[in-house]
Specification:
Blueprint: H1 9-62, E1 71-72, E2 80-84, E3 94-101, E4 104-109, E5 121-126, E6 129-137, E7 143-144, E8 156-163, E9 168-174
Antiparallel strand pairs: 1-2, 2-3, 3-4, 4-5, 6-7, 6-8, 8-9
């Protein structure tokens, strides 16, 4: 009789085949989890950028100075231009603006507040935007797409963002 005990070649091959199938399934599962995590991280980053833009818009619109250069759709270089109180006490008001250029919302900052001077510096704040619509609420309750500079501030400003991925975001910012 043969007293040697061990695994046969067939048993080892079967064990290796089972381990290969398990490794393949776990790799697919891990790959799916990592892809899902990357997608969630990208969406969180994207919505964070949208939130930052809307927060800055809210800050600028709520700090707008009465009848000092608030213009909506009436300028050729920006969709919204306004003069706002400065962030620091004693500092002069700042002229800022927003525009959509080539799928990117840009924040415009003029270096000299109210005075005419060098052109505004443009900073990209949100990419992959299909459309940016701004409307102003008049005293009689009607919404208008243009608000000429020099008129008293509108009652509110509505902002509508259409992202290239299909989502739409709307916000209403009261002024008075």
């Amino acid at each position: 009789m043969n007293s040697k005990r061990g695994f046969t070649l067939l048993e080892l091959l079967a064990a290796l085949a089972v381990l290969a199938v398990l490794a393949s399934l776990s790799f697919r599962g891990l790959s799916s989890v990592l892809d899902g995590e990357a997608h969630v991280r990208e969406q969180a980053r994207r919505w964070s950028e949208v939130g930052i833009l809307l927060g800055q818009l809210r800050e600028d619109i709520s700090s707008a100075v009465e009848s000092r250069g608030f213009a909506l759709g009436a300028t050729t270089d920006a969709d919204l231009v306004l003069t706002r109180f400065a962030d620091q006490a004693g500092a002069p008001p700042r002229r800022v603006g927003y525009r959509l250029r080539e799928g990117t919302v840009q924040y415009l900052l003029w270096p000299q507040g109210l005075d005419a001077g060098p052109p505004a510096a443009a900073y990209a704040v949100l990419a992959n935007v299909a459309d940016l619509r701004l409307t102003a609420l008049r005293e009689d309750g009607t919404w208008v797409p243009v608000w000429p500079a020099g008129q008293p501030l509108p009652r509110a400003v509505a902002v509508e963002l259409a992202l290239t991925s299909g989502e739409r975001v709307s916000r209403l910012f009261p002024l008075k």
